[in-house]
Amino acid sequence: MKGAEAYVNDQWNSCGLADLPQGSEALRVTLHFVVPRDAQTTALIERIAEAARQHLCEAYPGRPVHAEPTQGSVIGDGSGDGIELSYRVDPASA
After folding, report:
1. pLDDT tens-digit profile of 63-93?
2. Average pLDDT value for residue range 12-21
């Protein structure tokens, strides 16, 4: 079974991590991952969410990053394999 970091690293460009919004104001970031339906478990989705959050913390140093709840994150993209994870990034300190 593929690990959470592998999903994040393999889908770096397509999930949205390669093209993050910039600015000092508060931001909302939504990342899209493709995880086969039969591999989706709550634990795996939570680990992917945490791995992605860690990368967002590195991209926005000194700014708290808050993951929104992952329940119901499986989206209706027609395949059943897509998940969207959303995060709030606090504004930069002045």
Report:
1. 999 999 875 455 555 567 888 899 999 999 8
2. 95
Contact 9, 60 (CB under 8 A): no
CB of 45 within 8 A of CB of 35? Answer: yes
Residue 49, amino acid: A
- What token pair was written down for 81? 């394999």
What single letter denotes the amino acid at residue 84? E
Burial of 35 (0-12, 13-18, 19+ CB in 10 A): buried
- Write down the pTM of the prediction: 0.87
Q: Which amino acid is at 47?
A: R
Q: Where are the alpha helices (DSSP H) in the chain?
A: 4-10, 12-15, 42-59
| Mean residue pLDDT across the chain | 88
- Tell me if residue 37 falls in helix, strand or coil: helix
How many distinct helices (H) and strands (E) make up the chain?
3, 3
33, 75 Cβ separation under 8 angstroms: no
